[in-house]
Amino acid sequence: MRLIFYLKHFPPDGKELVRGTTKAVHGLVSGCAHAGAKVTIICEGDHRSSDVSDSGYGIECFRQQSGLRQFSVSKEMKNWISDCEKEAVFVLNGMFHPRLTALKRVLKKTGRPYIIATHGDYHPAMFHKHALRKHVYWHAFERPLLQGAAAIQVLDQRHQRNLSRRGVTRPFLVSPNGCFPVEVQRSPMTAGRRTRMLLFGRLDIYHKGIDLLLGALQIILRRHDVDLTIQGPEHDPREKINRLILEAGLRDRARCLAPEYDLPPSDVMSQYDMVVMPSRFEGFGLSALEAMVAERVVLITTEAGIAPHVEKSKCGVVIDPTIDGIIKGLEDLISRKNSWKSMGSSGRRYALKELTWERIGEETLAGYRSILGSVENHKKSTT
Q1: Structure confidence by residue, pLDDT tens digits, 284-299
Q2: Residue 129: Cβ within 10 Å count
Q3: N or C end: fewer C-beta atoms under 10 angstroms in the chain?
Q4: 2-178+357-381 and 195-354 in the same fold
C-alpha cells in the first residue's frame, strides 16, 4: 500500500521529534512501514529537500507558503502530488489548518482520496476559546474538509461522537497513539513524605487545565506534602504561568521549567512520582502514555483519549476536569502510595502489550485497506 502523510511542521531530516504530533506521525508511519506499506511524509520548510528516515519511510520537504498564501500550496508540491502513483492514499494530519483545505483542493482535482487524522477532539470546550472565529472557520472550511474525506482517523471512539453531533457523517477509523518498547532510566519513588508531581506537555493554561491544577494544589497542600513541576514548550508564555503560581501563593511548591529536549520524556518522568494531565479536553495524552512506559502513576481527565487505557491498566485515576475532580483524584492516588510501584509496573506492561507502534501500525493499515476498499466498491457500483 502506498501512503503519503502530510504534516506541515514535520522536521525535514526526521530528527528532533519533540512535538506531540510529530512524535505521533513518526510512530504511526514507522508502524505502517514495518507492516509493509511504502510511506512518505511530506512537510514544509525553508527549502526543498529529500531524506530517508532510519525507520524506513521517506521525507519530502517543500518550500513553505506564508502570509496570505496559507490557503495554497507550492507549485513544487502540486507537481509532486500529481506525479505520485494513482493508487497513493493521502493522510492529512491536523485540525483547523488552512493548508489542509488547500491540499484538499489539489487532491480533489487529481481524484485522489484522502483521510483526515485529527490528532485532537472537536470537544465542545475547544470551541469556547475564540468561539466566533472557530465557528466561522468550522462552517466555511473545517466541516467541508472533513466531509470530503474518505475517512476520519480519530484517537478515541468518543471523538467520533463529538464530530457526529456536528453533522460529520464520514466513516471513522479509531487509531490510538502508541509507544516504542524502550528501556527507561528508572528513579526510585519518593522515600519520604513529599510527593513529586509533574505536568508535562505544551504550556496551554486553558487546554491543559493548568489553572485548575493550581487551584486544586492550594487545597491539597493543607493535608499533604506535595511539589509540582510544570514543564514543556510554550504556547502561553512561561512568565504568565509563573505569575499564576505567585498569585496562588505557591512559589515554594510549584515551578515552571523549559523542556529538556536532550532527555527522552520517559527519563524525565522517572524523576517524579506521578504525572498529572488535568486537561479540559485532550486528543489522546501522549505524555500519559510516556509516563506509563516510565512506570509512573497517572492522573488523567475523562476527556483524554487515553483515559480508557489508564482505567484498563489500573495505573492511575481518571477524573472530571474540575478543581474538585483533581482534588479527589490526588487524594485517591496519595492514599495508595504503597501501591505506586505495582500500579506503575502494570501500566508499563499494558503499554508494551497493547499500545506499541508496531501493533497500531498493522491495525491502522488494515483499517485503511478496509475503508478504501469500500470507497472503490461504491465507485464501481455507481458507474
Answers
A1: 999 999 999 999 999 9
A2: 12
A3: C
A4: yes
In the sheet with 49-52, reading across from the earlier edge strand, the strands are: 49-52, 58-63, 38-45, 2-6, 89-93, 114-117, 151-154, 172-174
Set of cell numbers at residue 287: 505524555
Q: 100 and 91 in contact (C-beta within 8 Å)? A: no
What CATH superfamily is the domain 195-354? Glycogen Phosphorylase B; (3.40.50.2000)
236 burial type by CB count under 10 A (0-12 exposed, 13-18 middle, 19+ buried)? middle
CA–CA separation, 319 vs 302, rounded Å? 6
Q: Give phi and psi for 174, each to the nearest 5.
A: -90, 120
Amino acid at 353: K
Mean pLDDT over 233-239 rounds to 90
Q: Are strands 195-200 and 316-319 parallel, antiparallel or unpaired?
A: unpaired
Whose grid coordinates read 484517537?
155
Residue with cell 473545517: 142
- Report CA dihedral (277, 356, 176, 296) to the nearest 10 degrees: -10
Beta bridge partners of 304: 282
Considering the chain, what is the average pLDDT of its residues?
91
Task: Say what the pTM is.
Answer: 0.89
CATH of domain 2-178+357-381: 3.40.50.2000
Instruction: Tell me the pLDDT tens digit for each residue of 328-382.
Output: 999 999 999 999 999 999 999 999 999 999 999 999 999 999 988 776 554 554 4
